[in-house]
Structures are given as C-alpha cells and as structure tokens.
Design brief:
single chain; 515 residues; alpha/beta; six-stranded parallel β-sheet; globular; binds 6-O-phosphono-beta-D-glucopyranose
Length: 515
C-alpha cells in the first residue's frame, strides 16, 4: 500500500466474468481486504456481469459464501453485510449488446443513484481474451466508456494480452481505436506482489546496492518461477499457450525489467515504464540459432510430488495425448546496454517442479584473489543477493565468514530478511494494490501498449522456431524434478549452475531426469 493513504474516489467496479474463479478467489477477497484497511471509498459498489442468469440476491449469497471461504479466517460479519448490500448482478450473452448492455446501463444508473456515487466506473475484464475487444466496444457503443463531466472510465484487462506479436498489436489497435491509453490498465499480477514492488525500494531507496548493481560486479542474474502444480483444470487453455507464452513475456519480463532498469527520474507511471521499456528494447533479439541454443523447452512426464504420484502432462484433462506444448522454458537473455553488457540473465519457469519457488538471484563475481588457500574450493562461495518472491517473501545476502577456530577456514553464511518475521502476516491476494491503483488512476504497475508489444517481439522468433521444429524428446523431465537436463547444460557450458532452493542440484534430482 502507498505510504500516504489516499482513499479512492467514489466509484463502481464492474466485473465481467463475475461468476468465474478469478472473481471468487482473488477479486472479492482483494476488495474485502481493501475495505478492511479503509482504502475503499464509502460510496462504492460492485456490479457483477456474467453469462449465467442469476438474481442479485443469488449473486450476493454466492459472494458472501465465497468471501467466507477465501477472505482469510473469520471475516468480519458487518463488513460482509456491507459488501453484499453494495453488490448487484446482471447476466446475459456478451455478444448481444441490446439486452445485456442495455440492462447494464440501467443497473449502473440505479446503483449510482442508490449509493450516491458519481459515474466513475472501472471495468474488470475477467473474461477470455478473445472477448476483450468485443466487450469493450459494446461498453463504448452503449455510452458507458466515454469520460465526460469529469467522470472517469477505466478498463482493466487480464492476461494473456495477445498470443503473439501480431495478435497483441491487433488487440492494442482495436482498444486504442475506442479508448485512450490512459484508460487502459493491462494487469500483470506479479506487480501486485510485495517483494516485486520492493525491488524498486531495495535498489533505489538504499545507497549501498546501486553502485555494485552492474557489469563491473555482477557475474550473472538468475530468475526462477517454479511451480509444483500441474495445469489443473486449465488444460484447454494451457495446451494452446505453453509455458513460454503463459509466463515469460509477462511475469518474468516484469522481474527482468525491474531488476535491470535505470533509476527513473520520478515514480510517475510513465517515468518508471519508460525505463522498463528501455530494457525491453535493449534485450538482444533471438536469431533462429539463438532460439535453438539459448532457449530450452521441456514437458513434464509422470512423477512424484509431496510423496504422491502425479500424471504426466499428456495425461492431464483436456490435453492432447501427443501434445508438444512445453510446460517448462529456460533461456539466456543478453541486455545490450552500458550497465549489463556481457552479464547474462538466465530465466526459467516450469510446472510440476520440485518446489514452488520464485526468486531473483544477483550473483556477484568472485573475489579477485584467493587468499585462503587452505579452504576447500567448494567453501569459497561467491556473494549473491537473493530476492525471494514466493512462497517466503524476503531477501538474503550470502557471503563468506571465518569458521571459528585456530586456522583460517571460510564458511558460507546468510543474512536474512523475511517479510513475515519483520512486518507480520499481511492478508493479501496480490490484487489489492492493483485494484486500488486503478481507482486512483495510477498506472505505474500496469503494462503500457509498447511494453506488451516489445515483450512479444522478443519471444515471437522463439515461438516461430519451436512451431517449425517440434520437440522430439517430450516428455523430458519428471514431475517433481528441477526440469530438463538441457537447462542445466545451458548454464554449465558457461561454467555456471542454477541455484535450486533445497540443495545445489542433488544426485537424486539428476537421476530423476530422463536423458
Ligand atoms: C498465471 C499463469 O498468470 O500465473 C498460471 O497463467 C500460473 O499458469 C500463475 O500458474 C502463477 O502465479 P503465481 O502468483 O502463483 O506465481
């Protein structure tokens, strides 16, 4: 949350896809948390829009039950009541602008009058991406998108924003034909995570890190977003997307740009986003050869997670039995600028991995001279800063220290900062800050059109090569491992290795992999 609390202006949040999973698990609990910490305006209301026909009372009941389940232990009964009294619903076919959008317009007028809310609306598109432009157009066509008489209209779009450069450009063009860029909020929920926001504070709010945050001191950077889960019920979507599209041009590139960007001139939205965009522009494009040599793809086979047997990707629901979709991707990025020339950024993400773990590791160069010749080489650790994003948010600094005793021997030690230990448990879904920022009109943590397109531009050549040359060795990693061995080779051939959270790659882990 921002330090100087500013209650959002009175407004109505209109959720398209109001009966879906995202609304139930994230959006309602996030709104509830905002209300509990007094960030929501008193004059606030929610209008749910879905395909299902349902009365407002039925929707309120659903919301009440969902909040009880997903808003943490013992939600406040009075607050739940307040929420329900502020919630309405209308259902129908999103393609039919006559009935649904006409009903919506009437409902919004009624809600504004009842709760004394000026006509400030923000629309949350928790719907399939192929409906984004259609729904936005119908909102505008029905007079609900134009900003007049000092009232604002904002549109939040969930990811995926396009599935390649061409589709992202088309979607941007369709939306920008009817809306202003400042009305469009392209959400990436990674920017709602505390530690991700903390990267900027850590780098630019302290004077000791920035002088060493460059090619003179940093050997390389590793960014890992590993999940234990498989594709769950999302096989239909995932089989047409894959790990690269699903995670890299959005979540992982956000982490890259925040880690690599220059200090912005201010924390105004465009000042920050300009610096992020410069990093995307400095990432070296992938030639077809690079796509084969600097990028690795993988697909999980059956295996064991937490002692339970789990099926391989090809046996998941709604996944083709001969699917060639990747569930793992790793790559080496080069950022061609003064600060980062010759400092590789290694990225990896995968499903059904050994642990749920996301982190950024800044690996520093070795000390220039080994003074401690009696110390076994494996104890001579290089320094690294680890930014833990999840599950335990925090920051660790690794360095060497003398092991007590009469001879000089070095051991590796950690200096740890853990968010929960320091600040206590914060109930957060990761969406609070993003919803709040949209309500106050701050787009800093949202993606701009040029950033989305630049990200797709980087990964599109890889997708092209992969579709032209399908993988021949899938599945190539066992569920519960740390991914395919080719990903280890990607670093090993440059004398480096991935830092896995539990151990440096163990023998059992290596055994689990198929060659
Ligand atoms: C989503 C992806 O954007 O992010 C999912 O579509 C993935 O496939 C999820 O599981 C990961 O988010 P988090 O916050 O659990 O790391």
């Amino acid at each position: 949350m921002p330090e100087s609390q500013k209650t959002a202006e009175p407004c109505v949040m209109v959720i398209f896809g109001a009966t879906g999973d995202l609304t139930k698990r994230k959006l309602f609990p996030a709104l509830y948390n905002l209300a509990r910490s007094k960030f929501l305006p008193g004059n606030f209301a929610i209008v749910g829009v879905g395909r299902q026909e349902m009365t407002t009372e039925e929707f309120q009941q659903q919301m009440h039950d969902n909040l009880k389940e997903f808003a943490g232990a013992n939600p406040d009964g009075e607050l739940l009541q307040w929420f329900c009294s502020r919630t309405s619903y209308t259902g129908g076919d999103f393609d039919d602008d006559k009935k649904l959008f006409h009903d919506l317009k009437e409902l919004l007028a009624e809600v504004c009058a009842k709760h004394d809310i000026p006509e400030n609306f923000f629309y949350y598109m928790a719907i399939p991406p192929d409906l984004f432009a259609t729904v936005a157009k119908k909102i505008v066509k029905n007079g609900l998108g134009r900003e007049e008489d000092g009232h604002w209209r904002r549109f939040i779009f969930e990811k995926p924003f396009g599935r390649d450069l061409k589709s992202a450009k088309k979607l941007n063009a369709d939306l920008l034909a009817i809306l202003k860029e400042r009305q469009i909020y392209r959400i990436d929920h990674y920017l709602g995570k505390e530690t991700v926001q903390n990267i900027l504070v850590f780098r630019f709010g302290n004077s000791i890190f920035e002088p060493i945050w460059n090619r003179n001191f940093v050997d390389h950077v590793q960014i890992t977003v590993a999940e234990k889960l498989g594709v769950e019920q999302r096989g239909g979507y995932y089989d047409t997307a894959g790990a690269l599209r699903d995670m890299i041009p959005n979540h992982l590139f956000q982490l890259v740009t925040l880690t690599a960007m220059e200090p912005p001139v201010s924390f105004e939205a465009d000042a920050v986003r300009d610096e992020q965009a410069k990093i995307l522009a400095a990432i070296q494009p992938f030639s077809p050869e690079d796509s084969l040599h600097c990028v690795v793809r993988g697909q999980y086979g059956p295996g064991e997670i937490d002692g339970k047997k789990v099926p391989g990707y090809r046996d998941e629901e709604k996944v083709a039995r001969s699917s060639n979709t990747e569930t793992y991707a790793a790559m080496k990025l080069s950022i061609d600028n003064w600060r980062w020339a010759d400092v590789p950024f290694y990225l990896r993400t995968g499903k059904r991995m050994s642990e749920k773990h996301s982190s950024i590791i800044i690996q520093f160069k070795k000390a220039p001279f080994v003074l401690f010749r009696d110390t076994p080489v494996d104890r001579l650790r290089t320094n690294r800063i680890e930014i833990h994003i999840q599950p335990d948010e925090g920051i660790t600094l690794h360095f060497g220290a003398k092991i007590p005793g009469p001879v000089v021997k070095l051991g590796a030690v950690d200096m740890d900062f853990n968010y929960v230990e320091h600040f206590g448990e914060q109930l957060s879904t990761g969406y609070e800050r993003l919803l709040y920022d949209c309500m106050i009109g701050d787009a800093t943590l949202f993606q701009r059109a040029d950033m989305v397109e630049a990200s797709w531009e980087i990964v599109s050549p890889i997708l092209d090569v992969w579709s032209a040359i399908p993988a021949r060795n899938f599945p190539n990693y066992e569920s519960g491992s740390w991914g395919p061995h080719e990903a280890d080779e990607l670093l090993e051939r440059e004398g480096r290795s991935w830092k896995n959270p539990t151990s440096e790659t163990s023998a059992t882990d290596l055994d689990k992999r198929k060659s």
